[in-house]
Structure formats: structure tokens, C-alpha cells
Amino acid sequence: MQRPVTPLPLTEFVIMLAMMISIVALSTDMMLPGLATIGHDLGVDDLNDTQLIVSSLFLGFACGQALAGPLSDTFGRKPVIYLGYAIFILGCLLSLTATSWTAMIAGRVLQGLGAASPRIVSLALVRDGYGGRAMARIMSIVMAVFVLVPTIAPALGQGVIWLAGWRATFLVLIVMALLAGLWFALRQPETLPPHERRPFSARAIGRGLREILCNRTSMGATIALGFIFGAFLAYLSTAQQVYEGVYDAGSLFALYFGMAALSIGGAAVANSMLVMRLGMRFLTRYALIGLIALAALFAVPALAWGGVPPLALFIGWLIASFFCVGLLFGNLNALAMEPLGHMAGLGAALIGSVSNFIALPISYVIGHAFNGTVYPLLAGFAVVGALALAVFLWAERGTTPAPQTGA
Predict the structure, then answer these.
(1) What is the Cα–Cα distance from 110 to 61, expressed in whole angstroms?
(2) Could you give the CA distance from residue 368 to residue 106 in angstroms, rounded to a whole number?
(3) Residue 387: pLDDT band by 50, 70, 90 thresholds?
């Protein structure tokens, strides 16, 4: 029998986790309105290179997850989260005072490295006490709260930049990290007792990695998650260029970005209600099919308007596609974690790290193909959707839902 994950009221627990996880989204989306300005001030010549402000964060994030999970399995969840917040704040200070592009990127890598701990260990906190559809439901609720951040972060970033310049955005991130860390320290008890901790050794980690790599369900869901996240990360990296460069949205960039982000939140809410009845596998399969079908449908107006269809059609495609993405994020994460309850920290680390390392080159290829049209994004979503579906079907071949979990 699993122990209770926390004595906190469920509502407080979910909101606290969402705030901790949202540090990554806040660190990404607050920067988007200022990418061109930051690049100009720090001497960047190619506007596409400013996408590194986003992708370098996720490079550090991918590396940090590989360490945070195993460390939390050895030393407990709380000390590793504290260390992560400290590294994150150090990275913010480096970016805040950066006078060169190299220093800025180094600071962003450190921010990602530190943000990995609260992000990935929070998943282990949930897995410590829940499994199957109940775990998927909690993750979906967390995602629903978490998605409020992308809807307001660009507007917050625009306001901060307008009032105090782009460097002040890093001060906001420091304050948010301190508040989230203090809330966690005062209210959340440790969920991994000493007798359940795993030794931090190369041999122990190697055994755990082999188990995960040999688990068809976990690996298939992780790879599919990486494909989907790669296309989504490409959108984040190019959003400012698309809305302001292609569609001349100007100050309305934050509004359009938030409209698309809300769709992910709607999907997370819907998933929290549907997953208990329909299961993770059913929802994942049809979300992937929907993502591919939507790309095929949107190709018609995209071709008809020479790669720059009306903004309303572009926003409509994004909203529908991101609803599918919202279903996939929660369910693929839960499917990947489901067999790994006995080593949740290491499992969450590998899932997060591998999916991010898969996503980064995909994002780079799509992002640097930006040519003033929506073609790169459209092709990216179509291709990764097809690849993710193929991997998911391979992983699910011969698999039946366990009656205990009802996945």
C-alpha cells in the first residue's frame, strides 16, 4: 500500500507543485517579448540566434534532470529542491549582470540546471504516493494551474521590460524562486523516508537505467514525449518572430500567445476528468492522430496563402493543436512513470532528461529553418506527430492495461 504523499490539503498541494514547476515556463515565456532587444544589446547579428536564450535554458534543464532525480532518491526530495533553487538564483544573477552574449547563455544554462530540481522532483513527489489514473489526474490538475503561467508571462515580461528594462525580468524570477522555495520549505514534508532511499553509486544508477531502458512502455512514452516537446519548444523559440515579424502583432503578441497557451490548460482540465473513464492510452492515441490531422488540414490554407495564412486561421490551428499537446504532456508523462514507482526519482530524471535531449535538436532544426512563413512550424508538428504516433504504437504493441491501474 502506498503512503500518503502529503498531509497538505490537496488544493494547496497542487497549487504549490504548479508554482514550483512553473519556474521553467516563467523563465522561458517572460523572455519572449525581449528576445530581439536582448540580442541587440549584447551584439547578436543573426536574429535566429536569439532563440538560444530559450534553448540554452532547456540544455541546462536536460542535464539537471539527469542529476536531480538520482540525488533525490539518495538524499531525499527536499534537500535537492533547495539546491536547485540556489543554482537557479545564481544563474539569474549571472544573466542579470551579463555584458556579453556568452555570459547571458551561461546564466541561462545555470537557470535550467537549477530549475530541473523543483520541476523533476515534484513529479517524484506525486509518484511517491499515487499511481495509475489517480496519478494522471493529479498531474493534469497541476498542468491546468501551471498553464496559467504561459498565458500571463509574456504580458508580465512586456510590462517589466517597459518599466525597468529586460534585466529586471531576472529580478522577478529571483523573487518567484524565493517565494516558491519558502512555501515548500515551510509546508511540504519529506515524502521519501530514509529506509526507501537508493545508494548514489554508478552501479545502482546503472541498474536503474537498464531497467528503464528495457521497459518498452516507459521508453516509448519518453521518446514520443521528446518528439512532441521538440515541436512545442520550436514554437516557443520562434513565437516572437512569428507574431511580431510575420504578423506584425506588436504589443498584441502577449495576447495571442496567451490565447494559444490557454488551450493547453483547457486540455489539462479535460484530461483530469476524462482520464479516469477513458484511460491514458486511449487519450494519447487519439490526441496524436488529431495532431497529425490538424497539420494536414492547416496545410491547405498555408499553401493557398504562400506560407502566411490569415492570423485568425493560424491562431485557430494553434489552439486546436495545443489542445492535443495538452493531453499528450500529462498522459505521456504518466505512462512513462507508471512502471517506475519503486524508483520514482531516477525514473522522472531519465524521462525528463531523455525527452529534453530528443527535443533540443528537433527544436533547433525547426527554429533555424524559420524563413518568414509558418511552413517550418507546420512541417515540424506534422512530422513529429507522425513519429510520435509510430513510437507510441510500437510501445503499446501487445500491451494491455493493468487492472490495478486501469491505464
Answers:
(1) 8
(2) 21
(3) very high
103 and 94 in contact (C-beta within 8 Å)? yes
- pLDDT tens digits, 277-321: 888 899 999 999 999 999 999 999 999 999 999 999 999 999 999
d(CA 376, CA 378) in angstroms, rounded, equals 6
**CA quadruple 309, 310, 311, 313: dihedral positive or negative?**
negative
pLDDT tens digits along 17-36: 888 888 888 998 899 989 88
Give DSSP secondary structure letters for 152-199: HHHHHHHHHHHHH-TTHHHHHHHHHHHHHHHHHHHHPPP-S-GGGPPP
pLDDT digits 0-9 by tens, 221-271:
999 999 999 999 999 889 988 998 889 887 788 888 888 888 887 887 788
The CA distance from 337 to 127, in Å, is 8
The DSSP letter of residue 2 is P
Q: Give 354's pLDDT tier (boundaries 50, 70, 90).
A: confident
Would you state the cell numbers that stand for residue 42, as one nine-digit string?
A: 549584447
Distances (CA, A) of 52 to 63, 149, 232: 16, 21, 15
Q: Are the C-beta atoms of residues 212 and 345 closer than 8 Å to each other? A: no
Instruction: Indicate the length of the chain as a whole number.
Output: 407
pLDDT digits (tens, 9 = 90+) for 155-209: 899 899 999 999 999 999 999 999 999 999 988 888 777 887 877 777 767 777 7
Q: Can you tell me which residue has the cell 544573477?
A: 93
Q: How far apart are CA 269 and CA 276, in angstroms?
A: 12
Kindly report whether the global pTM for this prediction surpasses the value 0.90.
no
Q: Percent helix, strand and coil across the chain, each rounded to 5?
A: 85, 0, 15
Cell of 108: 541561462
Q: Is 151 within 8 Å of 265 (Cβ atoms)?
A: yes
**Which SS3 state, helix, strand or coil, does residue 36 take?**
helix
Return left, alpha or beta for 192; rule: phi > 0 is left, psi -120 to 50 is alpha, else beta: beta
Region 313-338 average pLDDT: 91
Cell, residue 134: 489517480
Looking at residue 324, what DSSP letter applies? H
At residue 401, the 3 state secondary structure works out as coil
Residue 53 cell numbers, joined = 536564450
